[in-house]
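Cross-posted from the bioinformatics board.
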Amino acid sequence: MSETPQHLYLVDGSAYIFRAFFALPPMNREDGTPTNAVFGVTSMLLNLIERTDADHVAVIFDAKRQNFRNDIYPDYKGHRPDAPEELRPQFPIIREAVEALSLPYVEMEGFEADDLIATYAKQAAAAGAEVTVVSSDKDLMQLVDDHISMWDPMKNQVISYDQVMEKFGVGPDKVVDVQSLAGDSTDNVPGVPGIGIKTAAQLINEYGDLDTLLERASEIKQPKRRESLIEFAEQARISRQLVRLKDDVAVEVPIADLKRRAMDKDRLLTFLKENGFKRLIARVSDGSETGASASDAPAPPKPADASYDLVQDADALKAWIALAEKVGTVAVDTETTSLNQMQAELVGVSLSVEAGKACYIPLAHVAPGSAGDGDLLSTGDDAEVPKQMDKAEALALLKPMLEDPGILKIGQNIKYDAVVLAGEGVAVTPIDDTMLISFVLEGGMHGHGMDELSELHLDHKPIAFSEVAGKGKSQITFAEVPLDKARDYAAEDADITLRLWQALKPRLLEEKLVTVYETIERPLVPVLAMMEREGIKVDPTVLRSMSTDFGKRIADLETEIHKEAGRNFNVGSPKQLGEVLFDEMGLDSGRKTKTGAQSTSSDVLEPLRDAHPIVAKVLDWRMLSKLKSTYTDALMEDIHPRTGRVHTSYMMTGAQTGRLSSTDPNLQNIPIRTEEGRAIRKAFVAPSGSKLISLDYSQIELRLVAHVAGIEPLIQAFRDGQDIHAATASEVFGVPMADMTSDVRRKAKAINFGIIYGISAFGLANQIGVARGEAQAFIDRYFERFPGIRAYMDETVEYCRKHGRVETLFGRRIHIPTINDKNPMRRNYAERQSINAPIQGTAADIIKRAMIRIPKALEDAGLSDRVKMLLQVHDELVFEAPEGDTEAAIACIKAVMEGAAQPLLDLKVPLIVEAGTGDSWAEAH
DNA sequence: TAGATCACG
DNA sequence: GACGTACGTGATCTAC
């Protein structure tokens, strides 16, 4: 083998250090030396070398702070603070770590890591090697070309020409020119004032390059821009010198010396032991990726041992805020009067900055024993209102901290707190959410409520809400809880949240789930919070008249049913109804329920429609009662008194597959399948002058099946825009498309759905009303025609048996612990789940990715202040827009939705979105 | 509080 | 080879 590299991997080590230091909770080895950055860098490098095929590797670091750029511009990176005290002692240990991993450690006085990377990259590329630069630093993007690409380890994403184009609006060869104009506040590169990346890209595209632009600056039409460019031309040229990487450094280590060496396991293990990295030791010694469950960090005191502060004046609050600023991370929890976030009134806030250290800030407590409202007579001699800060004053102090981009706010289900605080005019950003981290790590294994997570990870049972507020009828609101009890409960919640974060957050990195969390879950929080606060307008008059109409018809039907039955009984009682229909009237009872009672469900009653007139009446009664109680009546109660709109709450951990669920009220199950039910959607309206827009993915799950199972005929049918169920029928039953009957198509449609659900002959037979043997024959023929589907199912189930989980195409994990259950019923069920979950979950990931991108896309289209995203119904998004903006909004949103799998995923089938508009949801869908 | 039923994707 | 079945949700009502 020759010494010329085939594939050179250049790792931007400095970036890794900072990333690890700030992302991981503090850790110390036995002698007290902090080790969190060491741990993070070691773990990341270990991941990296396990997955690359590179034959040459270097980990490259910045030397000391001064370099040639400071001679050009003394302020370069001038405002960067010194490395934090906790980080400084870790630098030499990180060097040891790199060496223990048998990787070359490269640094050079007077040069930044970026210059060394540029030099090696150019040299290797010139020699014909492929180069991968591992970094997410945009300053390195100027290097990208046919031979040099980047890998962003945080986003798990390749950065090549397209991504550079997306980021800078120009190709890699013009990145330097754009950066020279736009400047860079993080590196203190001045650029030209008033010019950002967008304008810079536009100018460079127009004039070709920086020099030409500066020469011809006087031709620019916009006066301000023209003057700025003329005045700051020299500053732009200086910026270019700062930004352009030096690719001809006389490197001390030749490329040949970067040849990858075999890992010295003993040396590595010695290093890991010295630093107490138990989890990495386990991983290196047996190669298993699950690792030990023991935490590497020493156990902090249990919450029970902690004592908490009550903050009752501005000075105390300022001290806590200063602490949060110093640490840079703070757990936040709000206490309110209601679980319903739109009705909730803020009662207090708790904060925690380190394990065991937390406070509670009461803001709206009332005298204990006094009812929160209505009790006007008993003011005088009641207990006093407890001492607490003025709410507005406290929020004014908290607001800058909660909105500070440099302070991470950690919450358990922080969407709730964000919605409540948004009601007080306070934004919460940036955020982390322990509930979501747990869901991403261990979805399917257990619930993700705080009490459960605390018992699981901290071995501590938190104070129950009912202990401080009571339960049942005598339950009081949190505002009435005495301050000492309120402090113990509320501060503990913040403390636990912080500890959970410390325990769980590092695992995202170790278990390669950072991308799912950071690109699909976390950024969705502000989007959903906004939708929930927006709500959708519901017209109560429509509901009221429907309710009256339904009420009459239900009463009439009830009379008739009682007459047919020969006695009065409660039609809504399945037990009584069963007795009447089957015992007294002698109808054929179909199934039994699992408790042994005779089932009266609609699929039992439906076939009996013709057996007796009472059956149809019962079915109608059922339908109308359902519609009245669950929809028309209940929905009127849910109209918010102040907004006149209905505000649902989305639960992000509600469905194992990654789908959202909707509660209070559930707006994801508003009727549509029957004419009567569909009418309820007429009550969901746009305000006058606006329209509702509904956009939904067409057949997204079936498209995903065609993709993952590689079913060529279906892929082709989707590409050709054919009726997919008819095309399936044609393939499976051999009927030419021209001769297709609705019955054959119906059967094919049922099989297609069956495939998504993990088909069984019994289930299919039930669904389409044929004998089980016939259903089995259909399935056999389907598998015969589309062998890919069999293979997909077998492989998926096999993978699940081995790992206890399945994955979506975006890497979301869905755990299915019962897959190896000895009970065959539970096991079969788990197998069907494992077939369905990747499909349903990938579809959920796709629409979430779309939702995250939509606010930005609307802003770019100049629509963001007028077009509002209101609802998500699994494969559908509902918006409200002024009448004149609907067309532009549809074009913008449709493009985002149809492209939402990109660039991470290149589907073999197109994603198609269908759109409609109208004055009501009934018209729009 | 569990079970049955039925609304949705 | 038996087990008893389509996947994922939430709200309402009855009956215990």
